[in-house]
Design a protein that fits this description.
GAF-like_dom_sf, Beta-Lactamase, 46% helix, five-stranded antiparallel β-sheet, 3 domains, 17 helices, GAF, GAF domain-containing protein
């Protein structure tokens, strides 16, 4: 049809017969054969995006986009972002009617990170299963073809209908997005996206998104003039982040303090983790005798632990670790905490993103072994409950799941009949069963 905008996914308001079948066939040809000539029925903007996704190594059946920002980090980043002052306007124009219109509204930064995801609560709950959550990065090079990521990549408003998405787990959704620029400097600030069913890929939704962007840029221009008229404002001093203890997949812990990073010895790693776990459980602290029992498989004299704790306090500061009882005197975040928070929210894919491996795998300290088992068991249970093939594949790829026949069986059952991954999974499961029979 001549004169039809190439940025519109469904110019006629609904998908023509056979469109989904054509798109899926073309997509299968591309991901299995490389980059053949464009197929009929595939818009050039989509085909070009598919080729960029293929070149970036995006797995069409792989895990959801990574979650880059969580909790305090996310809150601080959003508060400082140039789009934060215009969020009330976006809510008035798009979010207030989003539930009635069965839509989700997302606002990203220039790198494709979702800053805000609001709208229909039921749809947001469903979207969480593909990591469409605040803090996740939906740039095209990591998430494949999608409206906000592609709009940022080409710097133009665009719609992506269902099977036009590069990643198959996203293909039940459609979306319309447009980039937002600073009206004075022209700098790309992010994108505004509307996600939902097929109706989101119709022309009037892209018009609505573009009108919202125009209103946002006008508001930013007015705010800029107001700021210029008031003169420079001295920013409030930033609150330093809490120290971070990283123990997942690491032989020795890494402690990040305002003064810099430190690699701890294995014994100091164990002691600080045990104190952090006690604080997370709401306990007062630990006696030297209890820490000795939690640190040494065969038991050890409390005097040995006291000496190690004295060295640890000199290393990290007496304002972080106190004595009588031994305890944390200030907040200390751990990467275990981040995984637990994500599991509590039900965002299992994001929890797997934050889990590079078991807790201090070289440690034989009973307290650390218990934390290692608790963490792995909680993550395993959440993955099994999800019954999502991409999560089960990721879990079975971890060292602690190599001999987990239950997880491998669940993975085989969850994979679709035509998946090329069924063969290797079935072979590994068969090998596990043979070895168990001796």
């Amino acid at each position: 049809m001549t004169g039809v905008s190439p940025w519109l996914a469904l110019p006629g308001g609904r998908p023509p017969p056979g469109l989904t079948r054509q798109l899926r066939a073309a997509h299968e040809t591309l991901v299995t054969r490389g980059a053949p000539p464009p197929r009929p029925g595939v818009r050039s903007v989509v085909w070009d995006s598919w080729r960029r996704s293929l070149g970036s190594g995006v797995d069409p059946d792989g895990q959801g986009p990574p979650v880059d920002l969580l909790d305090d980090d996310l809150a601080a980043y959003r508060a400082a972002h140039p789009l934060a002052p215009v969020l009330p306007l976006i809510r008035r124009l798009l979010v207030e009617d989003a539930e009635a219109d069965r839509m989700i509204v997302g606002v990203t930064d220039a790198d494709g990170r979702m800053l805000w995801v609001e709208g229909d609560r039921r749809l947001r709950s469903l979207a969480e299963t593909m990591n469409f959550v605040a803090g996740a990065r939906w740039s095209e090079e990591v998430a494949g073809t999608n409206a906000p990521g592609t709009a940022l990549a080409i710097d133009h408003p665009v719609q992506i209908y269902g099977s036009e998405h590069y990643r198959r787990p996203v293909q039940p959704w459609s979306c319309s997005a447009a980039p937002v620029h600073h009206p004075v400097s022209g700098v790309l600030l992010g994108a505004i996206d509307v996600t939902g069913g097929d109706h989101v890929a119709t022309p009037h939704v892209l018009t609505l998104v573009r009108a919202t962007v125009a209103a946002v840029e006008a508001e930013l221009r007015w705010l800029h003039r107001e700021e210029q008229s008031r003169g420079p404002v001295r920013p409030a001093p930033a609150r330093p982040p809490a120290p971070l203890l990283e123990v997942l997949g690491r032989e020795r812990a890494r402690l990040t303090l305002p003064s810099g990073r430190q690699e701890l010895s294995l014994r100091h790693s164990e002691l600080l983790l045990l104190l952090a776990e006690a604080a997370a459980a709401g306990e007062e602290g630990r006696s030297a005798e209890r820490l000795a029992a939690e640190c040494h498989p065969a038991g050890s004299a409390a005097v040995t632990v006291r000496a190690e704790l004295s060295r640890l306090r000199r290393l990290v500061g007496a304002d972080l670790v106190g004595s009588r009882p031994y305890r944390l005197l200030a907040p200390l975040e751990t990467d275990l905490d981040r995984v637990r928070v994500l599991l509590d929210r039900g965002t299992v894919g994001a929890a797997l993103d934050r889990y590079p491996g078991p807790v201090l795998p070289r440690s034989a300290a009973p307290g650390v072994v218990a934390a290692r088992r608790r963490t792995a068991a909680a993550l395993r249970a959440a993955v099994l409950r999800s019954r999502r093939p991409e999560l089960l594949l990721r879990w079975t790829a971890l060292p602690e799941a190599r001999e987990d026949a239950v997880a491998w069986q669940a993975c085989l059952e969850a994979l679709p009949a035509g998946s090329p991954r069924r063969g290797p999974v079935a072979a590994h499961l068969l090998a596990l069963r043979r070895s168990s029979r001796g």
